[in-house]
What we know:
18% of the residues lie in helices and 34% in strands. It is of the alpha+beta class.
Amino acid sequence: MRFVRAFLDWIASFWKSSPPQTTAPDAGAPPSRAHAYRTVVQYGPVHWVNSQAEANRLLSGGAIVMVKGTSGAKWLLMNCPDHCGEVRRISLSEAIPPAWKFRAEADGTISLFPSVHLTSGCRVHFVLRHSKAYVI
Ligand SMILES: [Zn+2]
């Protein structure tokens, strides 16, 4: 249990070190909820590409793939963090609702707001912060 406690403290320190975020109410998931996450999945490098076709080969390496549209980021693609084998395709464009907001972090990672919750299929619910998916 000592190790688990240390791990949770480490997760908590991670949240505390995240920069304050004012546009989304759940920007820093509270440390007290750290125990509620079923799994944490660390994603690899973030790639920016021009088409979804380019994304497919990158996803197998555990990357987060940002697909550019004519006016900025259009899609975020990632393998589902619950390992169901599906690719999560998340709209970042207001023109394609529902759309999420993202933040390109200074360390090259990606955060996503608000959480992603599928109401069908595998019903995964996760928060993406600094390219880590916290499955709720
Ligand atoms: Zn899934």
